[in-house]
Amino acid sequence: MCRLLETIRYENGRFYNLKYHRQRMDYARKMLFHLTEEIDLDKTLLKAAKEQLPNENSGLFKCRVVYDSRIREIRFSPYVLPQIRSLRLVKSDDIDYLFKYEDRSSLNRLFALRGAADDILIIKNDLVTDTSFCNVLFFNGKQWLTPEQPLLRGTRRAALLEQEQVETAVIRTDDLHHFTKVRLVNAMIRFIDQLDIPMEKVSRAFLNL
Length: 209
What we know:
By secondary structure, the protein is α+β, with helices and mostly antiparallel strands. The chain folds into 2 domains: 4-78, D-amino Acid Aminotransferase, Chain A, domain 1 (2-Layer Sandwich), CATH 3.30.470.10; 87-206, D-amino Acid Aminotransferase, subunit A, domain 2 (D-amino Acid Aminotransferase, Chain A, domain 2, Alpha-Beta Barrel), CATH 3.20.10.10. 24% of the residues lie in helices and 30% in strands. Strand 9 (144-147), helix 4 and strand 10 (167-169) form a beta-alpha-beta unit.
């Protein structure tokens, strides 16, 4: 049985975006295991936090939830925002990460091709998708756009779309010159963290393909 993963932001005693994590977990369990009953994620996480972080009422932690038909493991670890300053475009028409699998070997193989860049920007069938661990938002000087067909429909991305802070668009490699910067987001990295990369740090990598 394949195992799946949720990474949840836990900061100052509070879990964030649980609505979207629950939705993704319920969908994955329904599609992969034909299960329709919901996991009581809130109660389970609060219990785990009390057991593992009894004296931690402040600070930022990454909560790692491994599950299949049920939750198998919950672990907390301190989190520091990564430093990503450059991306290399890597093509893979076969990559499939519709569900957030614990096994990241297919992504790791692509990540190994990053060369001198800090991370990769994955191109599938000429469409821009995600980095190795983040959804991407592109700024064209007026608005933020995110690929209509990402590899993984992230929880932060879902929240930003619902809040109408970003819009979806079909973004091809030939469209990248229309943007000034790319912003990385995921469950741990917020929009307001402004983890931005100037497009010239992507374009130069693209020329190396």
